[in-house]
Amino acid sequence: MIIIKKTVLIGFTFVFPLMSWTQTSLQTDAERAYSIYESALEQDDLNITKVEILKAKALIDKVSSENDLSKDPKSLYYKGIIYSTIQMIRFRNDSEFNSQTPENAMSIATYSFHEAFTKSNSFDKQIGNFITTLVDFDAKNSTEIFKNSSIEKYPEIYNIKLSIDARYQFDSYCLSFSSDEILASMQNLLKARNSFNLISKKVKTDSLTTAITLFLEGDLYTAIHLLRIYNDSNFNSSTLSNTLELASSAYSKAFTIAKKINYKSDFQSLNTLLIGEVQAKTFFENKEYSKSAETYKTLYKLTELIGRNGATYIYSAAIAYHNGNDLPNAGKYYLKSAELTIKPEDNYLRAAQIYLSLGQKEETIRILKTAIDKYPENKTLNFYLGTIYMESGNDDAATISLKKAIAIDPKFWDAQYQLGAHLSNIGSKKRNEANALKLNDPNFDKMIAQSDEYYKQAIIPLEIYLSEFTNDKPVLKNLYQLYRALKNTEKALEYKKRIDAAE
C-alpha cells in the first residue's frame, strides 16, 4: 500500500511515497537503511537530516558492496530513493555534505530505479510516484535534478520522466485553455504533443508507466481533434486529421494494459472533457452551432473510449444542430439521445416531429411506434401517432391511437377534440360517398347508416371536450351540424342557442 507523507526538506515541501512492507523477523540492512532515511525526513533540523541521510547512504552502500542487488529489486528501489534525496540536498551547496557524497548521485539513483523497474513489477507505481516528486521538485526550484544523470541510457525510467513532463505540459494547456486566446492554447497543446513524441517506444510492455503514457496519448490526440474544429489553417497543417482514430487506438491499448495490472483512474481524461465542454458552449454562444455540435460529438466519442457515460453530449449535439436549423442531423441525434435514454420520450417525439417536417412520414411512424413499444403509457406519443395516421388516411389506426391516448388520460382535451374531429370527418366522407351514388343504389342506405354511426361516435369526445371549453365556437357548430344530420332537432336547437349566446 502507498502512504503519502509530506515533509519539509532543505527549505521546500515535498511529497514522498512511503511503503509498508511485510517484514521478516530479522530486518535486512537495506530495510534498516530505508528506516534511517524515513527518520531523516521527519527531522525539523536540516543538519540532523543530513547526518541521518549519510547514515542511510553508508548502510545502503555496505549492502551494495557485500551483496548482489541484481536479485533484490526492493533494495535497489531503496537505493534509488536515498541517492535521489542526496542529489536534492546537494543543491544546497553545503561543502561538507557534498564532499561526502558523489557528484553523480542522480546517475546512481537512476540506475537503481532502472534495475528495480526491470527486475520486478512490484515497484513500478512507487518508482513512478517518486520520479513525479523529483520532476515536481525540478519544476518548482529549477534545479535540473536529472541533468547529467545519464537518465537517457535507461529507456524505461527516461520514459517515466518524459511522460510526466508531457503530462505537466498537457495539464498546463488545460489550465491555460482560453477560447478567447485560442492560438496560445493551440501552441501550448503542440508543446505537450512534442514532449510526448520524445517518449521512446521501448517502454516496458505491461507497466503502469506504459498505461499512463498511452492514456496521455489518447488525451492529447482527442484534445488536438477538438482544437482542429476551430479550422485554424496553421494548427491543422501541423497536426494529423485522423486524430480520433489515433486516440481510439491509444486508449484501447491503455485499457488492455490497465486491466492486466489492475490499474484504474477515476479521473481519466477529465480535463479534456471539461475543456471540450467550455469549447462547445463557446461555439454555441457565438451561434457557431455546427462546430458546437461537432465538439459535443467528439466528447461523446471520448466517453465511449474511456468507459464513461456521455449520452448527454449527444443530446447537446442535437440541440446545437436544431438551433442551426440542420434538421436532418438534429433529428438523427434527438433519436440517438432517446435510444441512449436521455429524456427518451421527449426526444423520440422531437425526432418524429423533425422527420415529419422533412416529409419522411414513414420514418416518423416507425420512430413513434418504436417509442410506444417502449413507453406504451405515453399519451402524447399515442396522440401524435394518431394524428399522423389521420393525415395519412389510415382511419382505423388513427382511431385506435387516439382512443389509447384518451384511455391513458381522459382529460387529454386535445386528444378528445382530435378524436371527435376525426370520427366526424369519416362520417362526412361516408355521407359524401353515399350522395355520389347513382339514384336508387342499394348501398345508399347502408352508407348513410355508417355515416350516422360515425357521427354518433364523434359526438361523445366532442361533448367531453366542450365540458371543459364551453364556448368553443367551432366545436359548438360541429355538434350543431352533427345533430342536424342525425335529425335530432332538439339537440340541434340547443347548440344553435349556445352558438348565438357565445357570439
Describe the protein.
The chain has 503 residues and is mostly helical. It has three domains: 1-153, no CATH class; 166-293, no CATH class; 411-502, Alpha Horseshoe (Serine Threonine Protein Phosphatase 5, Tetratricopeptide repeat). It contains 23 helices and two strands. It has helices at residues 29-41, 46-66, 73-90, 95-99, 105-119, 124-141, 155-176, 182-197, 208-228, 233-237, 243-260, 270-285, 289-306, 311-323, 327-339, 344-357, 361-374, 379-392, 395-408, 413-435, 444-468, 473-485, 489-502, and strands at 2-9, 12-19. The chain has a two-stranded antiparallel sheet. The longest helix is centred in the last third of the chain and has 25 residues, at 444-468. Residues 1-8 and 10-27 have low confidence and may be disordered.
Tertiary shape: rod-shaped
Largest beta-sheet characterization: 2 strands, antiparallel
Low-confidence segments: 1-8, 10-27
* End-to-end separation: 85 Å
Cα Rg = 38 Å
How would you state the average pLDDT, rounded?
Answer: 86
Helix content: over 70%
Strand order of the largest sheet: 1-2
Total domains: 3
Pattern of helices and strands: EEHHHHHHHHHHHHHHHHHHHHHHH
Q: How many extended strands?
A: 2
The proportion of residues in beta strands is under 5%
Which structural class best describes the helix and strand composition? Answer: mainly alpha
Work out the helix count: 23
